[in-house]
Design brief:
The chain is α/β, with parallel strands linked by helices. The chain is 36% helix and 24% strand. Helix 7 packs across helix 8.
Amino acid sequence: MNTYYGMGSILVPPRREYTVPARRGSALVADGDPRIVRYLGRLLARQNYVVWTAETAAKALECARERTPELVILDAGLGLDVCRRLRTWSAAPVMMLAAETGWRARTEALESGADDCLSKPFSAGELQARLRALTRRTARPAGAMSTVRVGALLVDLTRRRVSYRGRPVPLTCTEFEILGCLAARPGWVVSITDIVRQVWGGPHHSLAASLRVHIAHLRRKLRGPGLIEAVAGVGYRLAAPDGSSQ
């Protein structure tokens, strides 16, 4: 397992202590191809990330437990079970890299707990854009609601916590962002375009299928019948606190 420290455009060798200016966060890169591992390690280090790398599933899980990275880039070839196991204790955003293209590979990645899926080969520009969208945290404007309660569901938008019938509901980064979009306007329909723009920052026509998968995950985790309603051809709506809708 290697560690890269980002300092501008300089790749600093591991196993030495350095003062890292303006560190943006920490990331784990796990891929069975050492060339991709080195490439992504350098790419993220240049953006001032502290990067840990792993080339096996076992090392990836070991590093995730010991280092608790704030971002994970995971190769689907290491096994989707790695992401499933990671999700049992970590809510860090996960970008899955898949060698196969098409909706089936993306759906399997999302079903395993990934927040987004990028097909190989990919451009550095697209990866960076996806990661920016994946890791951003929506700032709450002054005076905005901090908590939303709909029946037995409680969404704390400030502390990013969700509970249902008093029990915590573990959500991935993307799942919370989607729920946050709906909870900010309970009872109102939020368009697919608006949700995708806020969560992923991309065109809705290419991410609508991903949104449907995440909505299905949310419904299963919340277990509240009718909490999230699909409005055909328009978007989604979280039930209003008083049970009404707009």
